[in-house]
Amino acid sequence: MPIKEKIKSHFTTYETSIDENGLEHRRPAPREKIINPLTLVRKLTLMNWVYFLMGWMAWTMDGYDFHTVSLSVSKLAVYYDTPRARISQSITLTLLFRSVGAAIFGIAGDLYGRKYPLFINMLIIAVLQVGTAYAHTFETFLAVRALFGIAMGGVWGLAASMSLENLPVECRGLFSGVLQQGYALGYLIASIFNLTIVPNCPHPFRALFYIGAALTALVGFLRLLFPESKQFLEAKAQGRQGGHAKASMREARVQVRVHWRRCVYAVVLMAGFNFMSHSRYVLDPEYPTGVKKY
């Protein structure tokens, strides 16, 4: 292949398929016409909005609950009489155990649906938020935040699958971006509460965790008011849910074998994004007081 064509091929999006003989075929993916976002919004039905907003609220509270520690590092350092750097170890533990929770609740979502696993997930997070507020020793605090990481890791998979699989296919790209911003909104809400409510409370940091626990539990109970995801029910009616986890693993192995370059690229890309974000904004609240001494 000429160098010019080889370079051009790297900037072309391809579709890859495997035929019945196991042979791989690649062809340029067709480019679809961009649809007006307002047209996509008007396509959603009431139940589309219900499922989407439930997932969006769950993800928003996930962002809120994670950043309660980030916003309370100095107060926690005083409470536990330990350096701020040691308090930040709890954030590392939370992020470390997220993958465990993603696997556990991801499989649960495939086996038992989106409704009850998400409810249980949100309830566990609420309990652990209260547990954080009542952790009287630093070691207990670290243990609770590690468990919180497991629970936190389950929210995105359950919320995203429930929100997006119930939308028309052409709407999923736009609304996946809107859904992702719920995490940032949760941080903003926690920051506002930290500036307005926490200073007027008798406890130096606990109010932020109490509010998070209450709102997270509320989202979980709201999920019980609406039916199971239509896609899961269709799979259950066809009698495929029993081996769905095994089937998903088989499909995942095929996808990794076919698209391993993209998988590696995606992992490296997200690792870079997380490095830049968590190395900066997670401890941004500490910069004015801890570094600049304002």
UniProtKB/TrEMBL annotation:
Which Gene3D superfamilies does the entry link to?
MFS general substrate transporter like domains
Q: What is its main location?
A: membrane
* Cellular component GO terms, alphabetical: plasma membrane
Sorted UniProt keywords: Membrane, Transmembrane, Transmembrane helix
Q: Where is the Major facilitator superfamily (MFS) profile domain?
A: 51-294
What does the UniProt entry say about where the protein is found?
Membrane
Give the bilayer topology: Multi-pass membrane protein
Provide the GO MF annotations for this entry: carboxylic acid transmembrane transporter activity
* Domain of life assignment: Eukaryota
Where is the chain membrane-spanning? 40-59, 91-111, 118-136, 142-162, 174-195, 207-226, 263-283
Q: Which PROSITE patterns match?
A: MFS
Pfam families in alphabetical order: Sugar_tr
Coiled-coil ranges per UniProt = none
Name-wise, this protein is Major facilitator superfamily (MFS) profile domain-containing protein
From which organism does this entry originate?
Answer: Saitoella complicata (strain BCRC 22490 / CBS 7301 / JCM 7358 / NBRC 10748 / NRRL Y-17804)
User: What does UniProt list as this organism's lineage?
Assistant: Eukaryota, Fungi, Dikarya, Ascomycota, Taphrinomycotina
